[in-house]
Design a protein that fits this description.
The complex is a heterodimer of chains A (405) and B (374).
Chain A (H helix, E strand, L loop, with lengths): L1 H27 L15 H34 L15 H30 L6 E8 L2 E6 L11 E4 L1 E5 L4 E7 L4 E3 L8 E3 L5 E5 L5 E6 L12 E7 L1 H11 L11 H12 L21 H4 L16 E2 L4 E2 L3 H8 L6 H6 L9 H9 L1 H4 L26 H11 L4
Parallel strand pairs in A: 1-5, 4-10
Antiparallel strand pairs in A: 1-2, 2-3, 5-8, 6-7, 9-10, 11-12
Helix pairs in contact in A: 2-3, 5-11, 9-11
Chain B lengths: L3 H23 L5 H22 L8 H9 L7 H17 L2 H25 L5 H38 L4 H22 L6 H24 L3 H8 L18 H4 L10 E8 L2 E6 L8 E3 L6 E7 L8 E8 L6 E7 L7 E7 L11 E4 L6 E5 L2
Parallel strand pairs in B: 1-4, 3-9
Antiparallel strand pairs in B: 1-2, 4-7, 5-6, 5-8, 8-9
Helix pairs in contact in B: 1-2, 4-5, 5-6, 6-8
The chains are: A alpha+beta (405), B alpha+beta (374).
The complex binds copper (II) ion.
The site of copper (II) ion (CU) has 8 residues of chain A, from loops.
Amino acid sequence: MDSVNNVKSSSHRIRNSIATIIGFVVLAGCATNAPQDTWQPKGDNAQIINNLQWIVFPMAGVVGVLVLGFYAYTIYKYNDRGQPIPSQSHGKPIVEIILTIIPALILTVVGVFTFRGIFELANTEDTEMVINVTGQQWWWEYDYPAQDEQGITQPIISSGQLVIPVGTKVLLRETSRDVIHSYWIPALNGKKDAVPGRINLLRLQADKPGIFAGQCTEFCGLSHANMRMEAIALSQEDFAKWVANQQKAYTAPATGSLAKEGESVFLNQCIRCHQVNGLKKADGTPALAAPDENVYSGAAPNLSHLMSRITFAGAKFDLLNKSCRSDVWDASSETIGGKYLAGVSESCLNATHLRAWLRNAPAMKPMYADPAKLASSGGKYRGMPNLGLTETDIDKLVAYLLTLK
Amino acid sequence: MITPGSKYFFGLTGLSLIAAILYMVLVNPNDLGAVALFGLATSGALIGVMALFTRDGDVYTDEEAVAANAVAGPPSFWPIVFALGAALVLTGLATVSVVFILGIAVLIGGGVEWTIHNWADGASSDREFNEFARARAISAIEYPGLAAVGLGVIAFFFSRVVLAVSKESGPIIFIAVAAVIFTIGVLIASKPFMKGAVTVVVAVFAVVALAGAGTFAALSGERHELAAAAEEDHYDASHRECGGEESKHYDHLANNTVSLRSAVTATIFVKDGKVYAEAIGMTKKVDTITIPRSNATSVMFRNLDEEQHRLVVNLGSAKVAETGVVEKVGTCSQLTGKNQEQVMTLRIPKPALAGEPYSFTVPGATGEIKLVVP
Ligand SMILES: [Cu+2]
C-alpha cells in the first residue's frame, strides 16, 4: 500500500512541476515591457511579417503537437513489457504517399504566404523617402540625401537615432564601413544585413509617432551588444520642424562664455575625429574632421546636432536624466513629438554619463581603443579612446556640447 | 598489437609534438603556428587511437593477417617516385617554385600510390586478390586525378590557341572542335568494335594535335589587339587622360561590361548629349548623389550615345605637397562606347569645401550630377 501511495505522489509531483514550468514559459511570453517584441508590429512592414507568423506558427504548432503526441503514444504503447515482438513488415505505399502529400501541401501553403510576404517586403517602387544607413563598430550613421518632397534641401547627417515621418514609406539604403552589421527595429520591420561594399534596402513605415528600439543583430565584434539604435517616428509637422533644425547653420558660442572655451578644447581634442558642420578653426578656415586617419572604420559620429538626439554612443546611454527621460519615453503618441523635439537642455542633461564618456569612453563601452594594442588596425582606434581630459576641460566641453542642438 | 596504420599516426603525433615545441622555443610561442602543430599532434593521436581500436579497419583476424603479411608482393616502384618527389621539392626550394610545386604533386601522388600498394600487399595471402584490391582502391583516386591533369592540359593548350586567333574566329574554332569531339564520341559509343586500339589512336592523335597547335600559338604570340593593349599601360602615371582625347587601343578594346560583387549606389547615363542619374532605391532621376564619408562606394557610368564618352569626377582642388601648386583633384573612367559601362569606385574622406562642390561631369555632354559627402 505504502509503495503505491509513494508512486502516486511522486507522479503528482512531476506533473505539478511540469505544469509550473509550462506556466512560467507561457507567462514569460506576456511581458508587457518588451520593446523588441516581433509580435507587436507598429507599421505596415512589420505587420506583413506578423501576418505571416500567424499563419506559419499555428500550423507548425499543430504539426509539432501531433507528431510529438504520436511519438509519445508509440513509446508508451510499444514499450517493452516482455510481450512477443510483433510481425515485421517493410514499407506501406499508401501511408508513404499520404505522408509525402500532407507535408507537401503544408509546405505549399506556407510557401505561398512566405513568398507573398517576401515580395511585399521587397517592394521599393512606392518609396517616399530615402535614408542612407551606414553601420560601423559600434554605432549607426544616418544621412538623409537632399529630397525636395520631404523639405530636405541640404543633406542631413546624424547617428544612433533614426528620425522618420509617420505614414511615410521610408527606404533605408544600408551599407557598412567595416564588418557586417544588421539593422533591426522589430516594431517596424525584420532584419537586414549591412554589408561592406553592398547596398541593401530595407523599408520602414511607422503608423503612429513613437520611439522604437532596436539593435544590431549581426555579431560585429567587442561591443556588438552595445550597438543599439532607435527609430523615432514624428508626425509630418514635427518631422518638418526636425528637418529645419538639422539644417540650421552653426552658431558659435558667445565670446567669453564657458562654451566658447569648450569650442577651443573641441578644436584641439575632438575635431580630428568628430565633424561639427560649420565649425571654424581659430584662423577662420573651416575645421574638417579626419576620422579616416584616426578611426579604423573611417568615421565618428557627426556632432553638429548632438543635443537633438536623446541617446548617444550607439544609443547605449541616455543624454536625458531619469525624470526627463521618462517624460519623453512614456509620452503618448500625441505629445511625444513635441517632447522629443525639445532635445536636451542643461537641466535635463544626464551629465553623469556624458562626463564619464568624455573622461574615459572605453570604460563605459568596451572598444579597441587602447593605444598600445592598435597593431591589428593599422594604428587606428576602433571606437573612442580615453583622451585623458582634465575635469575643467570636461566642464568646458559639456557646456559646448550643450550648444550643439 | 600496435597496428601499422596506427604506428604511422603515432609517428606523426610524435613528430608534430617535437616540431611544436621547437617552434615555440625557436620561433614564437604565441603564434598560430604552434597551435596548428599541436592540433596536428592531437588529431594524429586521435586517428592513431581510432586506427588501433579498429585494427586499421582490417577485417582479418590476427592469424590471417600474419599469413597475408608472409607473402611478399611484387616489388614496387612507387618509393622511387616518392624519392624523386622529395628531390624535386628540395631542388625547387633552391631554384624555381614551379619545380617545388611539381615536387609536392609528385610526392602526394607517389605517396598515395605507395600507401595503397603497400596496404593491398598485406590484404590477403592471395596475390591476385591483392592486385585486384589495389586496383579497386586506387582507381577511385587515379581516374579523377588523371582526368583533372588531362583537362588542365587541354584547357591550357586550347586557351593559347584562342588567345592567338582573332576574336571572330575563336568561337568558330571552338564550335568546330566541340562538334568533332562530339561526333567521335558518338561514333565510339555506338560502334563497340571501334573501341580499344582505335580509340587510343584517336585520343593520342588529338592530344598531339592540340599540344602542337597550342605550342605553336603560344610561340607566335597573342593576337594583335591583346598584345597592343598590354603594351599600352593605361594605369601608368604618364598616361593620364581625362579630357576629350582618345586612346590608341585600350579604350576601344575594353569590353566595357561590368560585373561587380559590390553594389553600385547610382548609375550615371549619357543620352542625347545630356547627363542624368538614377540611384538605387530612388524612384525618380536624381541630380545629386550622396555617398557616405570615407567608405568605398561604386558609381556606374553607362553611355547610351554613339560617341565615346567618359565619366569624370571633380573633387575640388588641393595643394601638391612637393611643389605647393594648387591642382584639381579628380579622376575619370575609361572611354566607353555605345551601350557600354564603366564603374568608378570612390572613397572620399572629407566633405567638399563651400566654394568647390564635388561633381560628376562627362566631357562633350551637358549637365552635371552633384556629389555630396555629408
Ligand atoms: Cu554591429
